[in-house]
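Dear Dr. L.,

I hope this message finds you well. Following up on our conversation about the binding site, I have prepared a predicted three-dimensional model of the protein together with tryptophanyl-5'AMP. For your records, I am including the exact sequence and ligand specification that went into the calculation, followed by the structure tokens. Please feel free to forward this to your student if that is useful.
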Amino acid sequence: MNKTRKVSFSGIQPSGNITLGNYMGALRNWPSYQDEYDCVYCVVDEHAITVRQDPTALRHHAMELFAQLIATGIDPEKSILFIQSHVPAHAELGWALNCYTMFGELSRMIQFKEKSASHADNVNAGLFTYPTLMAADILLYQTDIVPVGEDQRQHVELTRDIAQRFNGIYGDVFTLPEAVIPKVGARVMSLTEPTKKMSKSAENENSYVLVMDSPDAIMRKFKRAVTDSDACVRKSPEKPGVSNLIDIYCAATGESVEEVERRFEGKGYGNFKPAVGEAVVELLRPVREETERLMADKGELERLYRLGAQKASAVAERTLSKVHKKLGFLPR
Ligand code: TYM
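The resulting structure of the complex is given below.
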């Protein structure tokens, strides 16, 4: 990668099975940049350990997520697809950036506040400095765009601030990245508590749809989704339940809100909820089936993640050694 093209970078945690929210807000947009951008996508296992993980489950989730990224259309030969812990430059730059990030900035991060509330018994330093590692992920590749869901906007803005501060002291070391957030699907809400974000760490499994859920499970979850009392398929801030289902339907089919409201006018939720379920089943079916096929050949997945780590390291090491030189570290 010699920066003849712009760079798209993003990452996702293997902290469990991924949801429809992850898919609509982030993953499915990643392959679309492959023709115009140099793409670098990463399974961020080092971020995942900021909350306790079972080692066997983490290994499985990292491998499955790697396969899922290929199943969504990322070509691991053309793009760079890798596992974060395989490229030590991430942790190394993360350390350096810790020294250029303020305590106050990290204290204002919404994800930190939420996660320290939901894991009150384990508010560790990694949870706090999580965004500086994320900044390292992004800045190592001289990234121009970061395709993410709405909840990551604040982290990308902080990354930009850190990069600007560093460049201000040492000259042009880092490209300033920008978050790219989709128009539909950027914030998929819980099916049982539609004022909260859909999240894989929620306790109630009816609140989220997983990319690997069977069609039956998906249909059941949508039929049970919380809606509102007036049974009218219309988007409104007073009706978070049906508004979320309309957004999901639009994101799955590409239709506009007006088209959907018109088609389901007078039809009630009894018709609408299964229709949303069916649209999501069809959206996720190819990804699930392709992931299952890829997971049958672990040897090939291992070959591909090693290839990814090699390609990623070559780029990341260049930025890291530039940073070390600027900082005044003796050459290795
Ligand atoms: P993570 O693993 O929580 O989520 C991965 C991506 O999914 C998006 N997302 C959603 N989008 C819409 N609706 C939802 N309910 C929903 N839930 C999650 C997230 O916005 C994200 O884009 N910190 C990141 C991982 C990361 C990263 C990076 C991202 C580490 N390094 C560098 C970009 C660049 C995270 O926790 O994502």
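In brief: Residues 298-327 form the longest helix (30 residues).

With kind regards,
A. P.
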